[in-house]
Write a structure and sequence with these properties.
The complex is a heterodimer of chains A (382) and B (354). Chain A has 382 residues and is α/β, with parallel strands linked by helices. Chain A has 13 helices and eleven strands. Chain A has a nine-stranded mixed β-sheet with strand order 3-2-4-7-1-8-11-10-9. In chain A, α3 crosses α13 and α10 crosses α11. Chain A is globular. In chain B, strands 3-2-4-5-1-6-10-9-7-8 form a ten-stranded mixed β-sheet, sandwiched between helices. The radius of gyration of chain B is 19 Å and the shape is globular. The relative contact order of chain B is 0.19. The chains are: A alpha/beta (382), B alpha/beta (354). Chains A and B meet through α2, β3, α3, β8 and α8 of A and α2, α3, β3, α4 and β6 of B.
């Protein structure tokens, strides 16, 4: 893992459907400035900038890191751009951390964003002929059969997805940056909403958001303020078109988790991790990832959800921020998970703080559930 | 910094037209070639560079994973930049010390779209892109800033193109382009032949650290230093006749510490060679772009990585002792990456940081 590295600043914008008051540059600058303020630093203290976002078709700006270099204080510095589909926010954090772990830099600014109101998400995520048969179903249509297969295998009752949708939206009410804020949300309300992609109902899916998230990373000697130390960091990818690929619980996710757990010395994630921010864009992905990440035995993840174990007051809170189900600027969604994990172990998560959180998991996935990025952060120095 | 070397390099026989292959089909043979050259089927890290906008569809890098196999799952990342920047990311990852090898690749088909207009979309979407300035037009602004309408400069540009195309004809991977002729302007002061040709192609490089580098290659091309820098995006706030970011990157990489036998520069417009040569302070006797450079074959998103590969190849086969490679991104050389490749590992401490 190389040199020690810590998160010393986190900045987020208030996630919303349309940020008409700012340009793309204004949006990323807002998050970056907040992260620098949190770290007690200025743009001049930064050695390098790493920018992440999902497909450029979302805003219609090709390789926008070139245009955003000015707003992010990148002139005269190395600026890089990461793109690994939905996992990109997590990957961007890992690429930024790598610059410090490799001993190349001492302070790195990592920024991820999406201004989804500039375009149409389903269009921007769909491949077309001649590159592939276009289903024009977007992510929900793609993942719905995987969810249905999980339900068949596990025998999970139909209402588990609604429980996740309610739990995450209630958490969102405690997060001032969350996009969806639905006071009084309950299971009946979720179940009364239209079926979008069977078995996913409207309130079981993530929103389309405008927003940016930024973090400042530091080497041990450059730490200012309150650090969240990185104890494990890993990425894994597997091909989309491999025959026999296990799409419900992908091997790349299992391998990635095993790698970060090994680095961080975690043998039982449910016991050793205090809080997790996990990429759950459709409600059923909570029980599916509980199993994939080793928090529950195969086919039993839904029992943790049903028992309330993943609630803010449960024994292993998942997504106290409200998660992707409550805020989803796609390119930033992974980095928000990583940043929220850091906020928890820094004790700076405000109303959605998990009491005494010392070790946290940040997780992101993307593509056809084939790209994974994860880190483990802690308030203890490794 | 840990010693990391390029130990293998492969590229397609680039074409100036759509050869009917998908990006994954184009990529597969070069991945296969570097796997055979090194005997490695698995790598500690994999990183690639590509651009969705070339195909006009999202996720170009996803189908590339199918070309790789990528099973069991691999530790992998992707930059939406030229693959030279993917090589930089892999070099950084190798500095962690826990892995010894990395696969880097890049690919692009610019034959199927209108590259000049597509590149307009990388400009500031509020103030620059609406002007409709295409890639050749903003390059022409830079050529004009250099004094591109002066007769002596025109002669210099003609010579750059003549030399590049002649070298390209001798390179089996590059296009066969005739000596430059004709006085018509493409966009003043640039002529059609000043512009790198539309090209489809792919390339792959294997990096190895420490003992593995010596095991895999007789003459590993050690990365003595590698660095990149950005400049402001807005053309109006830059002196377009100079490239301070390339100069900074060259200093950080340690270009000037010893003579340079060969330099492979990511020259997509002939006048850029003059700007880069000055920024990198390359000695008079340095051979520039013996491969022909991008003016003889410019597979976008792989062309920068190919500069690293071509520079390394001359060390791998014992023809050069010290080479420089350059890659760029963004309008008018906005971002520049410079690497120094050497036949021997660096003495410890010194160049290469950042």
């Amino acid at each position: 893992m190389g040199e020690r590295c810590a998160v010393i600043g986190v900045g987020q914008t208030r996630y919303t459907t349309k940020r008409l008051d700012v340009s793309i540059a204004g949006l990323v600058r807002e998050a970056a400035q907040r992260a620098l303020d949190d770290a007690g630093l200025t743009f001049a203290d930064i050695d390098a900038v790493v920018v992440g976002k999902a497909p450029d078709l979302f805003e219609g700006v090709m390789m926008p890191e070139a245009y955003l270099a000015d707003a992010l204080g990148g002139a005269g510095k190395p600026v890089m751009r990461v793109h690994t589909a939905g996992s990109v926010g997590g990957s961007t954090a890992l690429v930024g951390a790598s610059l410090i772990q490799g001993g190349v830099h001492d302070r790195v600014l990592v920024v991820a964003f999406e201004k989804q109101s500039e375009s149409n998400a389903t269009w921007a995520l769909s491949t077309h002929l001649p590159f592939g048969a276009s289903l024009v179903v977007g992510a929900g249509g793609y993942f719905a059969p995987h969810i249905r297969e999980y339900m068949r295998r596990s025998g999970a009752p139909d209402h588990i997805g609604a429980l996740v949708a309610v739990k995450d939206r209630r958490n969102a009410l405690k997060n001032p940056y969350a996009h969806l804020r639905i006071p009084g949300i309950d299971r009946a309300m979720v179940e009364s909403t239209p079926m979008l992609w069977e078995p996913i109902r409207y309130l079981e899916t993530c929103p389309s958001s405008d927003g940016a998230c930024a973090i400042v990373l530091a080497s041990e000697k450059a730490v200012t303020g309150t650090p969240a130390w990185i104890h494990g960091a890993a990425m894994r990818s597997e091909p989309l078109a491999r025959a026999g690929r296990e799409t419900v619980s992908p091997q790349a996710g299992k391998d990635c988790a095993a790698d970060v757990y090994r680095q961080a010395g975690i043998s039982d994630p449910r016991r050793d991790i205090d809080v997790a921010e996990v990429y759950v864009p459709f409600s059923w992905y909570e029980p599916m990832w509980l199993e994939n990440l080793g928090f529950a035995p195969e086919n039993e993840g839904w029992k943790l959800t049903e028992a309330g174990s993943t609630a803010l007051d449960g024994d292993i809170p998942w997504n106290p921020s409200g998660g992707v189900l409550s805020s989803n600027p796609i390119g930033a969604s992974g980095l928000i998970r990583f940043a929220e994990a850091a906020l928890q172990v820094r004790g700076m998560a405000g109303e959605h703080q998990v009491e005494g959180a010392a070790t946290a998991l940040g997780h992101a996935y993307g593509g056809g559930a084939q790209f994974f990025a994860m880190w483990i952060v802690s308030n203890r120095k490794p | 910094m840990r010693d990391v070397a390029i130990v293998a390099f492969a590229q397609t026989t680039h074409t100036g037209h759509d050869a009917g292959l998908t990006e994954a089909e184009m990529l597969h043979p070069v991945i296969d070639e570097v796997r055979r050259a090194t005997g490695l089927s698995r790598f500690g890290f994999t990183c690639s560079g590509s651009c969705d906008y070339l195909a006009g569809a999202p996720f170009s890098f996803v189908s590339a994973l199918d070309a790789l196999g990528a099973w069991p799952p691999i530790s992998e990342s992707h930059v939406e930049m030229d693959a030279a920047f993917a090589l930089y990311e892999a070099w950084v990852r190798l500095q962690h010390g826990d892995i010894d090898s990395a696969l880097v690749y890049g690919f692009g088909k610019s034959s199927t779209g209108d590259l000049r207009e597509i590149m307009t979309l990388q400009l500031d979407p509020y103030y620059l892109a609406p002007l409709g300035l295409d890639q050749v037009s903003y390059a022409a602004l830079q050529a004009a800033a250099l004094g591109g309408d002066r007769p002596d400069l025109r002669a210099a540009l003609d010579e750059i193109v003549r030399r590049s195309r002649a070298d390209g004809r001798a390179n089996p991977h590059a296009l066969d382009l005739p000596d430059p002729s004709g006085e018509d302007a493409e966009v003043q002061p640039l002529r059609p032949y000043d512009v790198a040709p539309i090209t489809d192609g792919a390339a792959a490089v294997v990096l190895a650290a420490g003992d593995l580098a010596r095991e895999l290659a007789e003459n590993p091309a050690y990365i003595g230093g590698i660095a990149h820098r950005a400049e402001p995006h807005y053309l109006g706030v830059r002196d377009l006749s100079r490239s301070p970011s390339a100069a900074d990157a060259a200093r950080a990489a340690g270009v000037g510490k010893a003579p340079v036998d060969v330099a492979e520069l990511h020259v997509q417009f002939s006048h850029e060679e003059l700007i880069l040569r000055e920024a990198l302070e390359l000695p008079e006797d340095t051979v520039i772009n013996p491969s022909g450079g991008p003016l003889a074959a410019n597979p976008v998103m792989a062309a920068g990585l190919i500069r690293l590969g071509e520079a390394a190849r001359r060390i791998l086969d014992g023809r050069a002792g010290r080479a420089v490679a350059h890659a760029t991104s963004g309008p008018c050389l906005q971002q520049n990456l410079v690497a120094v490749l050497e036949s021997a590992p660096r003495p410890q401490e010194g160049a290469g940081r950042g």
